[in-house]
Amino acid sequence: MNTKKDIVLHQFPFSHFNDKARWTLDFKDIDHERVTYLPGPHAGPIKKLSGQTQTPVLEIHGEIIAGSTGILKRLETMCPDPALFPPKHAEAIDETIQRFDGEVGPATRTVLFSVMLLHGGYLTGMFSTGKGFLTRKLYRATFPLVKGLMAKANGVTEANVEKSFDITRQTLDEVATRVHATGYLVGDSFTAADLTAAALLAPLANPEHPDMRRPTPVPTDLGRLLDEFRDHSSIAWVNTMYREHRPG
Ligand SMILES: N[C@@H](CCC(=O)N[C@@H](CS)C(=O)NCC(=O)O)C(=O)O
């Protein structure tokens, strides 16, 4: 089939929007290569590659696709089996994805960053996992200079943090109700709606998967933040989706 370099995912590690793309590639068993960027310094090369600065970006035989849902749909066309968009539920799946991409993903990120930004060493260490010693040191050293920009980029203002907590709590309650009957958000099997929701809630659940499991030890107040959500049945649902549908 494809040789490794035909398909390249340009990504941030541990990022929930990026995990939608990683999950889809793994779910469809698509051989690919991953190029991992540091948030901040990523902007130049990603802009050059895709004309915008957000990750994930997927390169398929030179075709560039930016945005996690565009990537999901492109991979569904390329490898329809196993299906993530069963045609009879396509509209409901799209609606769910739109809501999570537009509102819930940004909200869970703001909630997490509101605490992580207080721990520069932990945050920069996490995002530079796998990089060389000097790169990690330099990234850590520049954190105080870019902290404000990171706060702005991730919506960390007092009013937005409060709103993001509200959206997060409401969404967890809503997911619990929606999955009660079948275990899935749309229909009675795993679809792109579940993949999207589970990935975008994953920062709260900290699932066991190596692409998303946070480095330990976790700062105390980040642990306390996760404790607030730990016993919610939707967090158990996220972990179940990762365990049952997210390949190794
Ligand atoms: N709607 C986009 C959102 C992607 C997104 O927010 N990516 C963040 C990381 S989670 C990013 O690249 N931020 C850096 C930037 O905006 O320059 C998607 O679904 O892919």
| CATH architecture label of the largest domain | Up-down Bundle
Tally of structural domains? 2
Rg estimate, integer Å: 18 Å
Total DSSP E strands: 4
Helical content stands at: 55-70%
Strand order of the largest sheet: 2-1-3-4
Main sheet specs = 4 strands, mixed
* Count, helices: 10
CATH class of the largest domain: Mainly Alpha
Report on the structure:
This protein has 248 residues and is an alpha+beta fold. The protein folds into two domains: 4-78, Glutaredoxin, CATH 3.40.30.10; 87-117 and 154-245, Glutathione S-transferase Yfyf (Class Pi), Chain A, domain 2, CATH 1.20.1050.10. Helices cover 59% and strands 7% of the residues. The chain has ten helices and four strands. It has a four-stranded mixed β-sheet with strand order 2-1-3-4, with helices on both faces. Helix 8 (192-205) packs across helix 10 (233-245). The longest helix is centred in the middle third of the chain and has 27 residues, at 90-116. Bound molecules: glutathione. Glutathione binds next to helix 3.
Please write out the topology.
Layout: E1 7-11, H1 16-27, E2 33-36, H2 43-50, E3 57-60, E4 63-66, H3 68-78, H4 90-116, H5 120-127, H6 133-153, H7 158-179, H8 192-205, H9 220-230, H10 233-245
Parallel strand pairs: 1-2
Antiparallel strand pairs: 1-3, 3-4
Helix pairs in contact: 1-3, 1-8, 4-7, 4-8, 5-6, 7-10, 8-10
The chain binds glutathione (GSH).
